[in-house]
Amino acid sequence: MAEPVDAVTLADVVVDADEATFVEYVQLSQSVPVIVEVYAGQPAGQPSGPAEASAPLERLVRLKQGALLLVRVNALSAPEIVEALQVRALPALVAFIGGQLAPLTEGPQLDTTLGQIVDRVIEVAARSGVTRRISIAGDDEARDEGELLDENHRAAADALMEGDYESASDAYSRAIEANPADVVAKAGLAHIALVQRLAGKSLADIRQAAAAHPHDIDALCDVADLDLSGGHVEDACNRLLTAFATADQGVREKLRARLLDYFLIVGDADPRIISARTRLANLLF
């Protein structure tokens, strides 16, 4: 595949930066949009712990095939960058477009929210004329293969933009058939199921049903879905885990399946999911 004439050649679309290289990567925002993720890693030279850089965000950036650059910064190893960006909570995301700083989010985010952020950054960059792409040095063959592998993901994303959940589900199902370990596609299916379960139900109706029928598992699951969709991950998981502790086997299976969907949607690296997984494992064994 010939390299586009307007491409910026880099080693990868996801890079790690320190205080010596950060400015160099930010300068690239004159050509391609840059998202900076400041995360709570371990000190330099030590293995990363659970609160590390976001794997879901990395996957989302890679799916855009060179449309933007993700720069990861370990807060413990680069305190001057944290201060310069005025980061107050981790993980934090900021964007640089044409050299201009735009704060994005602070704190853990749902995978679906991260997807919306990535799309928004690309959209704003396009309106600002920052439209060059990243070409991976010496990786033409791998890129060809990646484009084929990502075809189903692109089809799913296009369908979701149109609100066509059936076609999006079909595309994600094809992706899983091609690669049973495709966590992104599995998370996509789980998120679509969440949206469809909440369709046509108002917040007031869901809350009232749960209050009127406190022992109704379906009503409880609806409230948990509502919590998760609003970003209240701990509340959603805690509702289901509390019910799980005293439920019979049949109900436990339903609650466990719903929790596993939540784990996929939010992502295993999220500290709230790590805590919920630990609690579920203790209840099971």
Blueprint (SSEs and pairs):
Blueprint: E1 7-10, E2 14-17, H1 22-27, E3 34-39, H2 55-63, E4 69-74, H3 79-84, E5 92-97, E6 100-106, H4 111-127, E7 133-136, H5 140-149, H6 151-161, H7 165-178, H8 183-198, H9 203-212, H10 217-229, H11 233-246, H12 249-266, H13 271-284
Parallel strand pairs: 1-7, 2-4, 3-4
Antiparallel strand pairs: 3-5, 5-6
N/C terminus separation? 53 Å
Class derived from helix and strand content: alpha/beta
Rg, Cα atoms, Å = 21 Å
Under the CATH scheme, which class of the largest domain?
Answer: Alpha Beta
Question: What's the architecture of the largest domain, going by CATH?
Answer: 3-Layer(aba) Sandwich
CATH homologous group name of the largest domain: Glutaredoxin
Strand content: 5-15%
Order of helices and strands: EEHEHEHEEHEHHHHHHHHH
Taken together, the total number of domains comes to: 3
What topology, given as strand order, has the largest sheet?
2-4-3-5-6
Mean pLDDT rating = 85
CATH topology name of the largest domain: Glutaredoxin
Number of strands: 7
Written account of the structure:
This protein is an alpha/beta fold and 285 residues long. It has three domains: 7-136, Glutaredoxin, CATH 3.40.30; 150-197, no CATH class; 202-284, Serine Threonine Protein Phosphatase 5, Tetratricopeptide repeat (Alpha Horseshoe), CATH 1.25.40. It is 55% helix and 13% strand. The chain contains 13 helices and seven strands. A five-stranded mixed sheet has the order 2-4-3-5-6. Strands 1-7 form a two-stranded parallel ribbon. Strand 5 (92-97) and strand 6 (100-106) form a beta hairpin. Helix 8 (183-198) packs across helix 10 (217-229) and helix 10 (217-229) packs antiparallel against helix 11. The longest helix has 18 residues, at 249-266. The termini are far apart. Residues 1-5, 47-51 and 141-145 have low confidence and may be disordered.
